[in-house]
Amino acid sequence: MLAPGHRVTRAPGGMAPGEFREWGHRFVDWVGDYLEEIEAYPVVAGSRPGEVRDALPAEAPLAGEPFDALFEDFRSVIVPGVTHWNHPAFFGYFAVSGSGPGILGELLAAALNVNAMVWKSSPAATELEEVTLGWLRGFVGLPPAFTGTINDTASTSTFLALAAARERQLPEAREDGMAGAPPGRVYTSREAHSSVLKAVHALGFGRRGVRAVATGPDRAMDPAALTDAINHDVTSGFRPLAVVATIGTTSTTAVDPVGAIAGIARSRKLWLHIDAAYAGVAAALPDKRHHFAGWERADSIVLNPHKWLFTPVDCSVLYVRDPAQLRAAFSLVPAYLETPETGVTHLMDHGLALGRRFRALKLWFVMRYFGQEGLRTILAAHIELARRLAGLVDAARGWERCKPSTFSLVVLRRSPAGVRGPERDALNTAIMERVNASGAAFLSPTEIDGETWLRFAIGNIHTTARHVDATWEALREAADEVG
Ligand SMILES: *Cc1c(COP(=O)(O)O)cnc(C)c1O
């Protein structure tokens, strides 16, 4: 070991002496300018397909290039091909944004470059993940019985949860695989995210492995239909495995009645997974808490700090009630990964990935920098902006809102008298495309009962009433222009 303060003279990171620092400072300055001047960029990239690819050579340079040339191409080729999720008028999909502390946390994680496979391969990465996910669990009011793990996306988290469900509910598949096992069924509402179907399919249950349960009022899963589906499947030789309930569906932020569904899952001994990828963090708000009643009875829950908690992509959290069930599905320790410690967590046992990034660092920075109160204030402000927009839409003649707007998403459409069906769908698509093409804002569409609606998703840390109002005005102007 070198004495503290000793400076290693070898060039850092393989760069020439001084070069790393010089470019590091310039990069941080660029990022600062970029975030301050974000509104000068068009929200959606104006590039045509292939444009970025064609602007770059097909092979890597034989000799290394100076950083000046790299940075120039970054600015002139890459940035124009970027859709700016940081833009305060990004209202498509679920509008997400990183934040200063998140970006800087990511920088440090890249610098440390640890691989938290097993505890020993980076004790701090493993233990900070435990601590930070304990904080997040407290923030959203889940009991300490839940253990969290960070994954890349909710799609992965849901896949892992359903793999654990398969391990518990279908012991026949453990030794011989799926061929000799009875056909399994996973129940989810017809409004569920496509990642549920993907997971079930990838786990070997086939497309028939998902039962899309009917929805009732407000596009929430109908518990009576769930019971009927389970009964019907049992008599037809299917093995019910799991129910996936959603709090905050992607299309309209519908909320499944989690309490009733938990009761059914418990009495039928099924695994209950809750997909709260977007809305989960809203459980931290006292006035939204009732939408989550009963979620603490789930076997697993996914929520994404990279969606609505200002943490750069990627950071999805899977909470499980019993991590031994995840380990049953995923722990497989070859000799070269054995370590002597006991009573420690080896994150590789909690999923498919062996190697993992130090993702907890950025989330820890975000939670410390803003604090629980600061985060609650931003979330509540987004919900208030959505409420205000909902009021504007409701007051406008010839516009319609898909109710309710429970969190920070408003689903709306232009619906002038006498315009219906495909004609109204085309009108809304034209309005949306006109606004998106202007570069001033971005919205994305959805389909409800086969009809086109526009999603106005608020969730970006830079968004204020000015951006919401201007985009609403732009929609109204576009509606006048396209007729
Ligand atoms: C966004 C979303 C997902 C998928 O999230 P990824 O992290 O991109 O996989 C899953 N479920 C719901 C409800 C979502 O809104």
Radius of gyration: 24 Å
User: Numbering strands along the chain, what is their spatial order in the largest sheet?
Assistant: 1-7-6-5-4-2-3
- Averaged pLDDT: 94
Low confidence ranges: none
Helix vs. strand class: alpha/beta
Question: Bound compounds, please?
Answer: pyridoxal-5'-phosphate
Classify the helix fraction into a percent range: 40-55%
Number of strands: 11
Q: Give a quick account of the main beta sheet: strands, pairing sense, barrel closure.
A: 7 strands, mixed
Question: What is the 3D shape?
Answer: globular
Portion of residues in beta strands equals 5-15%
Taken in chain order, the helices and strands follow as HHHHHEHHEHEHEHEEHEHHEEHEEH
Question: What layout of secondary structure does this protein have?
Answer:
Blueprint: H1 19-36, H2 51-54, H3 67-78, H4 100-112, H5 123-139, E1 147-151, H6 154-169, H7 173-176, E2 184-189, H8 194-205, E3 210-213, H9 223-235, E4 239-246, H10 258-267, E5 271-275, E6 300-303, H11 305-308, E7 316-320, H12 323-330, H13 360-395, E8 399-402, E9 409-414, H14 421-438, E10 444-448, E11 451-457, H15 465-482
Parallel strand pairs: 2-3, 2-4, 4-5, 5-6
Antiparallel strand pairs: 1-7, 6-7, 8-9, 9-11, 10-11
Helix pairs in contact: 4-13, 5-13, 6-8, 6-12, 13-15, 14-15
What does this structure look like?
The chain contains 15 helices and eleven strands. Helix 4 runs antiparallel to helix 13 (360-395), helix 5 runs parallel beside helix 13 and helix 14 crosses helix 15. The strands form two sheets. A seven-stranded mixed sheet has the order 1-7-6-5-4-2-3, with helices on both faces. A four-stranded antiparallel sheet has the order 8-9-11-10. It has helices at residues 19-36, 51-54, 67-78, 100-112, 123-139, 154-169, 173-176, 194-205, 223-235, 258-267, 305-308, 323-330, 360-395, 421-438, 465-482, and strands at 147-151, 184-189, 210-213, 239-246, 271-275, 300-303, 316-320, 399-402, 409-414, 444-448, 451-457. The protein has 483 residues and is of the alpha/beta class. Helix content is 42%, strand content 12%. Pyridoxal-5'-phosphate (PLP) binds next to helix 6.
